[in-house]
Write a structure and sequence with these properties.
Elements (H helix, E strand, L loop, with lengths): L1 H34 L3 E5 L6 E5 L1 E9 L7 E9 L2 E14 L2 E16 L7 E18 L5 E4 L1 E15 L2 E19 L5 E19 L1
Antiparallel strand pairs: 1-2, 3-4, 3-11, 4-5, 5-6, 6-7, 7-8, 7-9, 8-10, 9-10, 10-11
């Protein structure tokens, strides 16, 4: 009879222990899920441990500087967990002292995203840019055309994101400096020299976060 009681007591303790572990694990899961928006929390069905799964983000940002200079910059980015890789295209067209400038450059962007810096629904991203290709065409007041595809440059950017479900509303600031060198004339051996400039602009965008 004592063996039967001991068996029933042991079985009861095992059941209560398993129930308590499940409740505790679920409580930790709910708490961590509310405390971060960088990744999703899942429970390993075998070890009962809480694991953080990386979050994937797709973002697109666009920013005009002003309508008079016709300068724009568009950025597409993919973020795996906190690390991002993207590409930006900067376009600029203007007239200075009768000379027409029409340029475009492309940069690669690397970034890092902080998840819960300002609260459960906000993210903050810091990043840097490196210009790797581009083209500049200058049409002088005498209708002579100069071209250059030899470009270099760098920059930085910040992005504040607000999550609403799987969607993100994005607001950022981007700064880029660049230099085109070895501008050559299409019709003569005349060289223009180099063109150096820098731009800063505010951008807005949308994103998806899974």
């Amino acid at each position: 009879m004592s063996y039967l009681r001991f068996g029933i007591l042991l079985l009861t303790l095992l059941i209560l222990s398993d129930s308590f572990s499940s409740v505790l694990a679920q409580s930790i899961y709910d708490f961590k899920r509310q405390g971060t928006n960088v990744g999703q929390q899942i429970m390993d069905p075998y070890t009962k441990n809480i694991k953080l799964t990386p979050k994937i983000r797709f973002r697109y940002l666009y920013g005009p500087i002003n309508s008079d200079s016709q300068a724009t910059r568009s950025t597409s980015t993919i973020i795996w967990d906190r690390f991002g890789l993207g590409q930006s295209v900067f376009k600029f067209k203007t007239s200075i002292s009768g000379d027409m400038y029409d340029l475009e450059n492309t940069s690669i962007d690397l970034s890092y995203t902080f998840g819960d810096t300002f609260g459960d629904e906000y993210t903050f991203t810091l990043g840097s840019s490196a210009v790797y290709s581009g083209k500049l065409t200058i049409t002088s007041s005498e209708s002579e055309i100069f071209n250059s595809s030899n470009v270099e440059g760098s920059g930085y950017f910040t992005v504040l994101g607000f999550e609403y479900g799987i969607f993100e509303i994005l607001l950022g600031y981007q700064y880029i400096r660049y230099a085109f060198i070895e501008l050559e004339s299409e019709s003569s051996s005349t060289n223009w020299g180099s063109v150096r400039n820098s731009r800063g602009l505010y951008v807005t965008g949308i994103g998806l976060a899974f």
